[in-house]
Amino acid sequence: MNVENLIIEAEKLLEENLQDSVLRVLKKLPEDKKEKLAQEILDLDFEQLKRLYKETQETPEILEKKLDHMNYVDKYKLSPEKTNQYTQLGEDIIKNGNYAVVTMAGGQGTRLGHKGPKGTFKIDVEPEPKYLFQILAENLEEANKKYGIVIPWYIMTSTENDKETEEFFKKHNYFGYPQNSVKFFTQGNLPLLFTNGSLVLDKDYNIKIAADGNGCIYKSMKKAGILDEMKKNNIKWVFIGAVDNALLNMVDPILIGLAIDEKHEIASKSIPKNSPKERVGVFCKANGVPSVIEYSELPEEMAEMRDEDGELLYGEAHIMCNLYTLEALEKIAEIDLPYHVANKKTDYMNEDGEYIEVTEPNAYKFEAFIFDAFNYFDDMSILRGRREEDFAPVKNKEGNDSPETARKLYNDYHSKK
After folding, report:
1. Direct distance between the N- and C-terminal alpha carbons of the chain, in angstroms, rounded to an integer
2. Tag placement on the chain: N or C end, fewer CB within 10 Å?
């Protein structure tokens, strides 16, 4: 399509979809910027955007959820026989080359006051400071040495940080990890929408987009050919975890063995909540299927309920340590998970060519959540771990879940190894 037709088609689309503000901007732009914006407009799925915007204007339907306790297995209360059985089952998968790991690393370190991908953030651990990516690489390398294999490592970036992430790995020689066993792929994006439904333009007159949430990892893996590659390489089990956990154990044979023994296609590691009011999502059965319910949605009386052993009935925190069969991932990749809407502050270019910086939420961002996929399975395995061995999140600049708390957890754990 020549440039003239490209612009005509873009203008027609904007007109049909009542995007008058962007249409006026497009008509005023110089030719080089006009062509780029027109192409971006033609690449948009306006039907999807209309559906998403319509949902923001509707009062959410309050679905009656029957919540029930979800069973779990405490890793540290297993009998020696069960521990050996699960370990053997899991180690067979790993040693046979049937195991791969995926790291979600699309975020920036903004909340940490760090410029760059979150995985490039350095924590002042002992005996020397380490990057989050480096900690994960060492975790995998330890498993490789133990089992005499090289585990394929897939890293999901975002369009915002993909180039910088790959350059970081090259600069640091992949932290010694075999380069041909590391593959990068990007997660998807969705445009931001003003609260009136209009598209947002950034300071360069591009359609302003944002990553579409960790729940879109399944479709991103399919689109990037990762699932096909795994199938070709006889991968049977895949672990998906987040980059910002300094104690993330990506290769736990007991988790694999438990899932195999319980004949479940998905599994997850949990840790017990430190109190009923801890602000974490917890595992439960919702209308009979596995779910994670956000702390804000769990009624207070249920959050306080305990079993006969004094354990919280709804106390298993989801810590982004998820395991799937390849078949489960292929199944989820075909499902359109629901999008959740968040009200965000976003700076923008207005029709008069002024870049406006805002202080109040003015736009909608749409995200899918990784755990919404659990609802499409009858059951799943939950292995309870320990906070001091499995969960040292690096999310906030200071206070809870900060580099300081992660550093202490990391140092304490490794001093006992």
Report:
1. 62
2. C
Domain map (residue ranges) of the chain: 1-43, 62-416
Cβ distance 348 to 201 under 8 Å? yes
Residue with tokens 């008058």: 20
Would residue 210 be called left, alpha or beta, if left means φ above 0 and alpha means ψ between -120 and 50 degrees? beta
Backbone φ and ψ for 173, nearest 5 degrees, come out as: 50, 40
The burial of 345, by beta-carbon neighbours within 10 Å (0-12 exposed, 13-18 middle, 19 or more buried), is given as exposed
**What is the Cα–Cα distance from 314 to 301, expressed in whole angstroms?**
11
> In this predicted structure, what is the pLDDT of residue 62?
47
Weakly modelled stretches of the chain, pLDDT under 50:
62
Joined together, the tokens standing for residue 107 give: 């975020």
**260: its two tokens:** 């195999």
Main-chain phi, psi angles of 109, to 5 degrees: -90, 30
Indicate the pTM of the whole model: 0.93
Question: Is there a cis peptide before residue 191, judged by omega within 30 degrees of 0?
Answer: no
CATH 3.40.50.2300 assigned to domain 62-416? The reply is no
φ and ψ at residue 43, rounded to 5 degrees: -85, -10
